[in-house]
Amino acid sequence: MNLRSLQWKEILLLPAAGWTLTLVIVHQSIIASSSYFLTRLIEAFQSGRDFSPFLLAYLAAMLLPYIPGCASLLTLQLWINQAHRRFSNRLSESTYGFIEKHRDNSLRETIESVYSRNSFIALQDYLTFIYQFVSLILNSTLSMIVLSLLLPGNLIVGYTISILGATTLILLLRRRVYLRSTQAENTFISYSEALSQIWDNSVLGNRYNFDLWKQHRDRLASQYYSRSNRLQLLKQSGNLTLAFLSLIPTVYLILSAIYRHGVESALIAAIIVNLTRVFHILNSLSGLVYQILDFTAMNARVQVLLNAERRFMEPTALPEAPQGQVLVNDSPVHQYESVVKVIRNSASGRFTIRGANGSGKSTLLHVLKKALSSEAILVPSHHGKLQWRTTSANQSTGQRAVSQLLEISSHPEVRYLLLDEWDANLDAANTHAVDEILAQFSENRVVIEIRH
């Protein structure tokens, strides 16, 4: 099974999905039967026959739908939660260990925005849409089947004409809605990333940084609001057109049937009794077609989520050699692979990497992490989001560094410790404390460090 199919399977083919759709079918079937029982009730009443069985059945058809209706909303929430759990677990597992992607800032922004801010809302909206979409289809289809048993056949013709006209409009609008939805969703990701930068740019009070951030935020805001407005305008224009396509043919046929010469009074009564239901169905048809248009937008949002994982499958290779002069324990590095071999053959020791900015020091750590895999822990220079067991928010930078290294030292399976400028922003006391820990660590394991 390819990646795309597997991704959709883990969203749609879940236990709660089956229960939700089953309950929706039961719910809509009971609702549709109410028109049948109401019509038979009126016919029995007019003819003087016993109408009590139809009355009881009609009352039951009005009351019982609440049970499967409420239950389906509960299972829908279970479906949403299961889908999000599967998605979040899958994305974290799929991206694990792709060290060569770590410095791709564009991909980082997309993944963090998708994972932390967009995924639950997008999946919730998408699955709720499917729930409403299936409900509308069943409501319209089952109701028309019931009414076709009760009303003149030409009303079905009108309904069919409405469906064909609506389908034609869908085919004309679908591509444009999809493109505009994708543009709006991608712009929203960039906009939300800009919004997430409020803390440093605003709270620090640096006017220069604040003004630059504001300009960047406002530019992305204008792009997103403009694209979302154009998307909504396109969808609502289509919805208005669909309303006319849905209503006009059937309205004409209903009026023709009522005013036709010699029509039976029982038929007129049946048409009038079910007129509200017919227009409700036609309104549902208009809503259904609008939902189909909206499905394109919903699908585009979910595709943005799934494409984030697919981008990790695109091949990316780490460089084989440094861009400038890089020294390891004062020896020049010509090929990264030679350093990997030296480190692999070392049971203990301390290796210090030095070089100018942009020469390839951090890249060497990434190459080593890729080669050493789970035997190594890489701590980048900016690692505030890494999860630790012992770190407290009340600790200073130095205290956090000490507690993190002690935590790493307590895990014997970690044979290699890769540190990127660990001594940056540390005072003399904490630098000495960290240095002592690293010295002890390197007595029976390996430390590879970039020094500030």
Automatic annotation (TrEMBL):
<feature type="transmembrane region" description="Helical">
    <location>
        <begin position="126"/>
        <end position="150"/>
    </location>
</feature>
<keyword id="KW-1133">Transmembrane helix</keyword>
<feature type="transmembrane region" description="Helical">
    <location>
        <begin position="12"/>
        <end position="37"/>
    </location>
</feature>
<keyword id="KW-0472">Membrane</keyword>
<dbReference type="InterPro" id="IPR036640">
    <property type="entry name" value="ABC1_TM_sf"/>
</dbReference>
<dbReference type="GO" id="GO:0005524">
    <property type="term" value="F:ATP binding"/>
</dbReference>
<protein>
    <recommendedName>
        <fullName>ABC transporter ATP-binding protein</fullName>
    </recommendedName>
</protein>
<keyword id="KW-0812">Transmembrane</keyword>
<feature type="transmembrane region" description="Helical">
    <location>
        <begin position="156"/>
        <end position="173"/>
    </location>
</feature>
<dbReference type="GO" id="GO:0005886">
    <property type="term" value="C:plasma membrane"/>
</dbReference>
<dbReference type="InterPro" id="IPR027417">
    <property type="entry name" value="P-loop_NTPase"/>
</dbReference>
<feature type="transmembrane region" description="Helical">
    <location>
        <begin position="240"/>
        <end position="259"/>
    </location>
</feature>
<feature type="transmembrane region" description="Helical">
    <location>
        <begin position="57"/>
        <end position="80"/>
    </location>
</feature>
